[in-house]
Amino acid sequence: MPLRTYLNYKGIPLPTEGFSEESLSFTENEFQMLDDDTVVVTYPKSGTIWMSEILGLIWHNGDPAWVRSAIVWDRMPWIETVDGLKIALESPPPRLLASHLPFQLFPKSFLHSKAKVIYTMRDPRDVLISHYHFSKILKVLKEPGTVAEFLETFLKGNVIYGSWFDHIKGWMQMKDKPNFFWITYEELQQDLRASVERICHFLGKELNSHQIDAVVENASFKRMQDNKMSNLSTLPEEMMDHKEGKFMRKGICGDWKNHLTVAQKEHFDRVYQENMRGVNMTFPWE
Ligand code: PPS
């Protein structure tokens, strides 16, 4: 049975299982980002696997064979995990990589490279609810308690990868750089086709209309729900309680409305306003 305990790497809580201070330090200080690397970066539960699927499909011109035959963390290794780092180091360029790291712990070499980062954000209230449910089934995460309790844990940043606010503010320092692209889960939901076109444009990858259709179709919630290489159903029972819930849970915007009381929403909004003061950007959930 995995332990539901966290290590603390430079103030950021991470599961003890699958992570080590040594490999986190290597990723931060020694990992070499290559100019032709593309990295999917997110705060957890913001659409990481969705974006990974989209990129995997774009990479192969809409052909789903690869995303249906290779498990997502082999296709796009998580550079901060012990196993993911090893796979990333062995992968031939051009590499597709993934990370949840906050900006300050991301490989330093990124700042001197042309590696591309695609940063996906999501309404933090939906992130909270998605994380809450995921904490009940993924056995390396601490038990969330009640929604009210988890709301406080989340707002204080006492969750894996730390504070949502710090993650956003850290990465938004990059927002005007040519090798940085940001998009929201809400935009993907609203118009996946237009989002795929924008991503292709950023990557300098030209797909024809049929290929874009194929990306959109194969990255739908339904298709991904049925793709065992992406839906986490292959995780062993000792890691994930498949009877209690699914990784591909609802895949909608605004599910927080089914979980937070009016008072909890107002409390969330107050903390949001305090933390996002000075961020001169507008997001679809505001
Ligand atoms: S993780 O564990 O941090 O990697 O999770 P992450 O992939 O970032 O986010 C999981 C949520 O993304 C939803 N999801 C999707 N929504 C819409 N369409 C597609 N294709 C899709 N794929 C994944 C997934 O259902 C999780 O959200 P919730 O709200 O829990 O359903």
TrEMBL record:
E.C. number: 2.8.2.-
Compartments where located: Cytoplasm
Keywords: Cytoplasm, Transferase
Any single GO CC term annotated in Swiss-Prot or TrEMBL for this entry: cytoplasm
Keyword Cytoplasm: yes
An annotated Gene Ontology molecular function: sulfotransferase activity
Domain Sulfotransferase residues, every copy: 35-278
Classification via SUPFAM superfamilies: P-loop containing nucleoside triphosphate hydrolases
Keyword Cytoplasm: yes
Family: Belongs to the sulfotransferase 1 family.
Entry protein name: Sulfotransferase
The species this protein was found in: Eublepharis macularius (Leopard gecko)
Native organism taxonomy: Eukaryota, Metazoa, Chordata, Craniata, Vertebrata
